[in-house]
Write a structure and sequence with these properties.
Pfam families: Acyl_transf_1
Strand order of the largest sheet: 1-2
Keywords: Transferase
Radius of gyration: 16 Å
Largest sheet: 2 strands, parallel
Structural class: mainly alpha
GO molecular function: transferase activity
Distance between the termini: 35 Å
InterPro entries: Ac_transferase_dom_sf, Acyl_transferase_dom, Acyl_Trfase/lysoPLipase, Polyketide_Synthase
Shape: globular
Strand content: under 5%
Protein name: Malonyl-CoA:ACP transacylase (MAT) domain-containing protein
Number of domains: 2
Order of helices and strands: HHHEHEH
Number of helices: 5
């Protein structure tokens, strides 16, 4: 992906302004195990594109540092459910994991089911 990294940054610079996160953001790029405080600017997203994914480090840090965490996977299928559950098992965590869509299922129905599960868990949702 390095060969397109420069073009990617140029495209982002036209439309994206990086800001520091307003909620705890655990990076799978830096692997610091701490919430990021730096602006998530075009250069950060270039590193995200080009660098190894430090997924386990980021998820383990979330489990260690955030109370009452709920994982919500937004995508066409909960592809990360297995790896996240393995990490949760190693961390002795039973945090809820919810996928918003599932391959072969009605996407509106699975999305509404996910919203219902979030409601049951008292997760605050800002619909704005």
């Amino acid at each position: 992906m390095r060969e397109v990294g420069g073009e990617y940054v140029e495209a982002l610079l036209r439309d994206v302004q990086g800001n520091p996160p307003s909620v705890p953001f655990f990076s799978s790029v830096t692997g610091t195990g701490k919430p990021e405080q730096v602006a998530l600017d075009a250069k950060y997203w270039q590193r995200n594109l080009e660098s190894p994914v430090l997924f386990k480090t980021a998820i383990a840090a979330v489990l260690d540092q955030i109370e009452n965490v709920t994982f919500l996977e937004i995508g066409p299928h909960p592809a990360l459910a297995g790896p996240v559950r393995q990490i949760m098992t190693q961390a002795s965590s039973s945090a809820p994991y919810i996928g918003v869509m599932e391959r072969g299922s009605d996407c509106v129905e699975t999305f509404l089911i996910a919203l219902g599960k979030l409601f049951e868990l008292n997760v605050s949702i800002d619909f704005v």
